[in-house]
Description:
Layout (H helix, E strand, L loop, with lengths): L2 E3 L6 E4 L5 E5 L2 H7 L4 E7 L3 E5 L2 E7 L5 E7 L5 E6 L5 E4 L15 E5 L15 E2 L5
Parallel strand pairs: 3-10, 10-11
Antiparallel strand pairs: 1-2, 2-5, 3-4, 4-9, 6-7, 7-8, 8-9
Amino acid sequence: xxxxxxxxxxxxxxxxxxxxxxxxxxxxxxxxxxxxxxxxxxxxxxxxxxxxxxxxxxxxxxxxxxxxxxxxxxxxxxxxxxxxxxxxxxxxxxxxxxxxxxxxxxxxxxxxxxxxxxxxxxxxxxxxxxxxxxxx
Length: 136
Ligand SMILES: [Zn+2]
Ligand SMILES: [Zn+2]
């Protein structure tokens, strides 16, 4: 089973199957949290995600949908590990850079690239991936 951990190693988790898809997001919060031009997000059903160790902090904001979006961090190193969005109640949005072996993503399709209106022009669109200016 794929396992993941935060930068300090306190927070560890496993998922019982590969993510079904990833979404690349350039929304402003993703840019802030990643300190980069956006983030990659793996969609994992909650019943396939198991926290193995570590204490968690969380922070909740209102998303563009008007519904709550909660970020979960390692309490020690503050590594963003997963996101819970009220508009997708059955899944976690897992930060796949936290997977111990990134080749878990090799056969996982990139479903969409979203908030492309925020994508700096030096970063081109992903080939053959559905493009959305905003969330939808
Ligand atoms: Zn940590
Ligand atoms: Zn985003």
